[in-house]
Amino acid sequence: MKSDKISELTTNRLSIYLRCLNELSAASIKTISSQELAEQFNLNSAQIRKDLGYFGEFGVRGVGYFVDDLREHITKILGLDKPHRAGIVGAGRLGTALANYNGFGKSNFTVVALFDNDRAKIGHRVGSNEILVRDVAKIERVVREEKIDVVVIAVPARAAQRVLNQIMAAGVKAVLNFAPASLTTRRGVKVKTVDLTTSLESLSYFLARPQAGTVTDGRHRAPAKESSENNERERPTAPASESGRRT
Q1: Helix (H, G, I), strand (E, B), or coil: what is residue 176?
Q2: Tell me: the pLDDT tens digits for 23-68?
Q3: Largest Cα–Cα separation, the chain
Q4: Are 154 and 88 in contact (CB under 8 A)?
Q5: What was the pLDDT predicted at 6?
Q6: Distance CA 129, CA 102 (A)
Q7: Residues in the chain with pLDDT < 50?
Q8: Which end of the chain is more exposed for a tag (fewer CB within 10 A), N or C?
């Protein structure tokens, strides 16, 4: 596996492929080629083959990919074959909404703890799963006891760096940050930021352009094209095929 050449955008696309394969499996589809996968889900067949080629050869000439087998391989590549236990720092509206979200379980993530520094919230339980709100000052002990390996930051920007420092001190190495702030991390800690404001401002730019509205539905794009957010501008020089041959 050529892990040194794998970008974050590649792993993002693997998540998309897995979602597509889950849909195909639910529809009892057993095999599919990269071209059929691209056409059905508006992806790029050459990019699919290149991305999968980083991890091995999964296709069969004249058949394509076996859907369930490829699902299993990508699940393992993304580390989703093992359960992940998540904590959320910030028991405000965003934090409690995330704690109540039922979709995490589909990807093998379970929210096991909420943290806050508001005494009025500490000790209360949130959502249908009755997740206990803990004192953020005790995050290191709770992380150890609950075996938390992923933490979500859902606090105001002014508090985000301080919270991240507490998370890193607790030994957590994977952090999803919803605070609109640029954070400083230590070596070996991965922070992925979801900035809703920046995304909305990008949409505002689109709406402000004179040509806005000429393309309003991504499903009308040519199948070979990807959205700008998914395209990391890497063009395969010699598109890899499934099992070395295009199917």
Answers
A1: strand
A2: 999 999 999 999 999 999 999 999 999 999 999 999 898 899 999 9
A3: 63
A4: yes
A5: 86
A6: 10
A7: 218-247
A8: N
Are residues 22 and 71 in contact, defined by beta-carbon separation less than 8 angstroms?
Answer: yes
Neighbours of 181 (CB within 10 A): 17
Other CB atoms closer than 10 Å to residue 40's CB: what's the count?
Answer: 14
Beta strands in the chain (DSSP E): 31-32, 59-60, 64-66, 84-89, 109-116, 125-126, 131-135, 150-153, 174-177, 190-193
* 170 and 139 Cβ atoms separated by less than 8 Å: yes
Q: Is 75 in contact with 55 (CB distance < 8 Å)?
A: no
Instruction: Report the chain's C-alpha Rg in angstroms.
Output: 21
Residue 233 region, left (φ>0) first, then alpha (ψ -120 to 50), else beta?
A: left
Cα separation, 164 vs 176, whole angstroms = 10
Length of the chain: 247
Distance (Å, whole) CA 38 – CA 169: 43
- For residue 209, the model assigns a pLDDT of 87
The predicted structure's pLDDT at residue 128: 86
Integer angstrom CA distances of residue 141 from 47, 110, 167, 170, 215? 44, 18, 11, 8, 51
Q: In terms of Cα–Cα distance, which of 1, 13, 37, 14 is closest to 247?
A: 37
Tokens at 236, concatenated? 């395969």
Q: What domains does the chain contain, in order, with CATH numbers?
A: 3-79 (1.10.10.10), 84-198 (3.40.50.720)
